[in-house]
């Protein structure tokens, strides 16, 4: 059984909601079958006031083992580097996160805030916050780039705003069993971050034939005009549906790239920046010249049923 | 007896919370609701495109992002005087209802009832039943609540792609209209949720339950075995056995901005409130209901760590300039919203009182505001909400094929000011926006918990939570569970108060 402590820092609880939404495995099934022993979770523990303080002290003293530390929320260093914008019983949360990380076998950043900084770190970053081991795309956040947890891994970044529900529970279940978790260039587990959001999108045939919407609310692709970041964002939103039902692009909401370190980007979130007729940010790894040639042909090849938007995404 | 000060940190609320209470012996004689965690959301919005608020503000709060999204869309619609199709308003209401049901259920059985499974209550006759139903993560009701709350937000995902944190409401409508296929899915979700609510929560049919219209009718209903053994029956009997109907009164004025929107009345010029349940101010002491006036909402900073200004300011002219002053009588990052000069309570109890639920009106008249009634009203509202969801789906079936989005004319969002108000799960939520030359120039958010958890104002009046714990007798100051019951009965959402969240003691911001 792996012991787990879930620390909320500068958080909105969205990742906790996502954790509660995971149905297979669910957090309660992981606890009941003995994979996870939940030492503390801010929303779920029934410890009396002060209980967290005692637990932190025991972990720091080495009398309580900590297998998995989950951190939800941005790591707030303000004001003036004190971290006192976010504290527990007079101690900055950043100091607590650092101390617990030192004792943990695995450290998991749940959500884009603790992975990269996220929304609170958007300009003007009023609270001087950062991610655990990244500051946006720059390696090194609260912890330096070379930092490793007890098991020899960097902070595992379960990016997303919020993180996909079963990405959380399956990752925790894998860590509890000490299964290897291969990480990508941003220390996100490849298993959940190797496909683009574009992959599996039910608007793909519209994209394929360059049938692009200029106004929200329609059935076509949202990449060229409405700000969709699906082709350049690595996440499983369209290969493993949200709440077992859908994804934002399927429902007509552009992908805002929330698993990326640049989230939220500076430009208008519902508008695509373009060079000429083509988006500035191309699908991952594509060359501009080839893409333009392909798009010129695509529109001409579009079948009528696609041009007429007969498919319900 | 000597006067002592107790610092209490509470979990099982959304975000972190610390309460500082002064005791005379074991009796609470003063209270300060203290919090920190300045995330500065409003500052993040300045200079961005008007619609970016639809992506940023839902992220204020993981548990009520749909309410923020809805409010942000309303503010832009009022600003630009945009029409909205009834189809879109029906879907928006349905999604907000699903989110509220989720929140009410999780709050009741994941956050509130765990306090009943406390060693202090082991000698209570109902304790074994309470443990079987409500033990954290293991109890029968807790497990079925986890499944039911997971299920109901699937409805939001059908229209928004995911819950939490989506942006499917836009000024002028929604991104995806309902199809007959969606309706079948939504009907199944709502029917299953009602079935569970009937079986596990009330032990009766929804119709019978909603027909209860007086305290007498309710207490005789409670005598029947299936009702007594239901989650609500157990919660009520136990809460009353430990005296929660005698504590936690608070402000005695109840404010609701009006629940959900009438699809036909939510249209320009947006002069009158268009709530499906009426907005208003309800007086606990004589049952009077006054019309709602958003112009008299104002925020004080007399006891908050912001640059001082006299009196209160309306959100349109509000300012938020941090000014940390330890060792003074200022004690929090929260502002103090007031309705005129009144301290108010908002939330499900307020919503049902202004909405005219006769059972709740009768219970309030009998015993006054209290911690049990507040929690009871929350689960009562879940029933009403599920009933309205069914009605909405029937109405939506008649709107299939009608427009779901009316695109705003070019430049419509480039200039102006507007506000939106909804009843989120925890009460009245308002967004006030000003746009200059196509960019957001001011954004102010007043959340339900900002109302309820406010500090003292310029006139020295305590905030509602503070008021609700003053006078309480603690059995054991080392384990002040009474404060937990009272504060959790308000369903605190500290992450939502925007300017502040977190655990704080008074003298620790050594900047």
UniProtKB/TrEMBL annotation, chain A:
Gene Ontology CC terms, in alphabetical order: [Ni-Fe] hydrogenase complex; cell envelope; ferredoxin hydrogenase complex; membrane
Uppermost EC category: oxidoreductase
Catalytically driven reaction(s): H2 + A = AH2
One Gene Ontology MF term: ferredoxin hydrogenase activity
Domain of life from the UniProt record: Bacteria
Keyword field: 3Fe-4S, 4Fe-4S, Iron, Iron-sulfur, Metal-binding, Oxidoreductase, Signal, Ubiquinone
Any one biological process term the GO annotation gives: anaerobic respiration
Subcellular localization, as worded in the UniProt entry: Cell envelope
EC numbers, comma separated: 1.12.99.6
Cofactors, names only: [3Fe-4S] cluster; [4Fe-4S] cluster
Residue positions binding [4Fe-4S] cluster 1: 12, 113, 161
Domain NADH:ubiquinone oxidoreductase-like 20kDa subunit, first and last residues per copy: 12-174
SUPFAM superfamilies in the record: HydA/Nqo6-like
Family classification: Belongs to the [NiFe]/[NiFeSe] hydrogenase small subunit family.
Subunit field text: Heterodimer of a large and a small subunit.
Record-given protein name: hydrogenase (acceptor)
TrEMBL record, chain B:
Needed co-factor(s): Ni(2+); Fe cation
Subcellular localization, as worded in the UniProt entry: Cell envelope
Pfam (any one): NiFeSe_Hases
Keyword match Metal-binding: yes
Signal peptide: none
GO cellular component, one term: cell envelope
Binding site residues for Ni(2+): 61, 64, 493
Predominant cellular place of this UniProt entry's protein: other
SUPFAM superfamilies (alphabetical): HydB/Nqo4-like
Residues annotated to bind Mg(2+): 42, 445, 499
UniProt KW keywords: Iron, Magnesium, Metal-binding, Nickel, Oxidoreductase
Cited InterPro entries: Ni-dep_hyd_lsu, Ni-dep_hyd_lsu_Ni_BS, NiFe-Hase_large, NiFe/NiFeSe_hydrgnase_LSU
Record-given protein name: Hydrogenase
Organism of provenance: Zoogloea oleivorans
């Amino acid at each position: 059984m792996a012991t787990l402590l879930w620390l909320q820092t500068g958080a909105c609880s969205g990742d906790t909601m996502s954790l509660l939404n995971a149905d297979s495995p669910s957090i309660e099934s992981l606890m009941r079958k003995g994979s996870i022993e939940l030492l503390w979770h801010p929303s779920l523990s029934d410890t009396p006031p002060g209980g967290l303080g005692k637990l932190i002290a025991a972990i720091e003293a080495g009398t309580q083992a900590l297998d998995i530390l989950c951190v939800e929320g941005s790591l707030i260093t303000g004001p003036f580097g004190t971290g006192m914008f976010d504290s527990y019983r007079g101690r900055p949360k950043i100091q607590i996160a650092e101390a617990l990380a030192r004792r943990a076998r695995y450290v998991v950043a749940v959500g884009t805030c603790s992975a990269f900084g996220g929304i609170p770190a958007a300009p003007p970053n009023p609270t001087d916050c950062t991610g655990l081991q990244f500051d946006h795309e720059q390696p090194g956040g609260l912890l330096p780039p070379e930092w490793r947890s007890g098991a020899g891994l960097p902070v595992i970044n379960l990016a997303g705003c919020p993180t996909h529900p079963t990405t959380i529970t399956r990752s925790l279940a894998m860590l509890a069993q000490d299964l290897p978790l291969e990480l990508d260039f941003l220390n996100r587990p490849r298993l959940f971050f190797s496909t683009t959001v574009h992959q599996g999108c039910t608007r793909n045939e519209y994209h394929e034939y360059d049938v692009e919407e200029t106004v929200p609310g329609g059935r076509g692709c949202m990449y060229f005009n409405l700000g969709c970041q699906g082709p350049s964002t690595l996440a499983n939103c369209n290969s493993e549906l949200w709440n077992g039902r859908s994804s934002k692009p399927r429902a007509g909401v552009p992908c805002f790239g929330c698993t990326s370190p640049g989230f939220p980007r500076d430009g208008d979130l519902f508008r695509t920046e373009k060079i000429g007729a083509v988006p500035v940010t191309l699908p991952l790894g594509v060359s501009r010249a080839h893409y333009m040639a392909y798009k010129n042909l695509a529109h001409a090849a579009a079948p009528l049923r696609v041009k007429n938007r007969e498919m319900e995404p | 007896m000597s006067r002592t000060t107790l610092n209490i940190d509470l979990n099982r609320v959304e975000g972190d919370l610390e309460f500082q209470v002064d005791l005379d012996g074991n009796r609470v004689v003063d209270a300060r609701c203290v919090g920190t965690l300045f995330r500065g959301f409003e500052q993040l919005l300045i200079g961005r495109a008007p619609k970016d608020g639809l992506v940023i503000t839902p992220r204020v709060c993981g548990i009520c992002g749909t309410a923020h999204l809805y409010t942000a869309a309303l503010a832009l619609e009022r600003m630009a005087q945009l029409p909205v199709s009834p189809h879109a308003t029906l879907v928006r209401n349905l999604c907000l209802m699903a989110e509220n049901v989720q929140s009410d259920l999780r709050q009741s059985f994941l956050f509130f009832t765990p306090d009943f499974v406390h060693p202090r209550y082991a000698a209570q006759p109902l304790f074994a039943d309470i443990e079987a139903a409500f033990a954290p993560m293991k109890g029968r009701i807790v497990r079925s609540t986890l499944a039911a709350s997971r299920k109901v937000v699937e409805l939001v995902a059908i229209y928004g792609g995911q819950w939490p944190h989506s942006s499917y409401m836009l000024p002028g409508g929604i991104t995806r209209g309902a199809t007959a296929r969606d309706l079948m899915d939504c009907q199944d979700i709502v029917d299953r949720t009602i079935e569970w609510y009937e079986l596990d929560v009330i032990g009766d049919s929804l119709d019978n339950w909603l027909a209860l219209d007086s305290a007498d009718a309710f207490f005789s209903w409670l005598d029947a075995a299936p009702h007594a053994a239901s989650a609500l029956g157990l919660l009520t009997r136990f809460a009353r056995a430990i005296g929660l109907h005698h504590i936690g009164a608070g402000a005695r004025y109840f404010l609701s901005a009006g629940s959900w929107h009438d699809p036909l009345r939510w249209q320009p010029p947006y002069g009158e409130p268009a709530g499906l349940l009426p907005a208003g101010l309800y007086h606990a002491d004589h049952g009077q209901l006054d019309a709602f006036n958003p112009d008299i909402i104002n925020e004080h900073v007399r006891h908050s760590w912001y640059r001082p200004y006299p009196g209160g300011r309306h959100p349109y002219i509000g300012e938020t300039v941090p000014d940390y002053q330890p060792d003074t009588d200022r004690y929090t990052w929260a502002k103090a919203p007031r309705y005129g000069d009144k301290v108010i309570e908002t939330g499900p109890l307020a919503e049902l009182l202004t909405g005219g639920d006769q059972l709740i009106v009768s219970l309030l008249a009998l015993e006054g505001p209290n911690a049990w009634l507040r929690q009871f009203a929350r689960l009562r509202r879940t029933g009403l909400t599920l009933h309205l969801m069914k009605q909405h789906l029937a109405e939506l079936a008649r709107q299939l094929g009608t427009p779901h989005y009316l695109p705003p004319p070019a430049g419509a969002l480039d200039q102006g000011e507007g506000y939106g108000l909804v009843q989120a799960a925890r009460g009245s939520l308002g967004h006030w926006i000003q746009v200059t030359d196509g960019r957001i120039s001011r954004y102010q958010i007043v959340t339900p918990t900002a109302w309820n958890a406010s500090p003292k104002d310029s006139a020295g009046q305590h905030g509602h939570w503070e008021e609700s714990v003053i006078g309480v007798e603690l059995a054991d100051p080392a384990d002040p569970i009474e404060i937990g019951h009272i504060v959790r009965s308000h369903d605190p959402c500290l992450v939502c108060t925007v300017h502040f969240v977190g655990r704080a003691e008074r003298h620790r911001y050594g900047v």
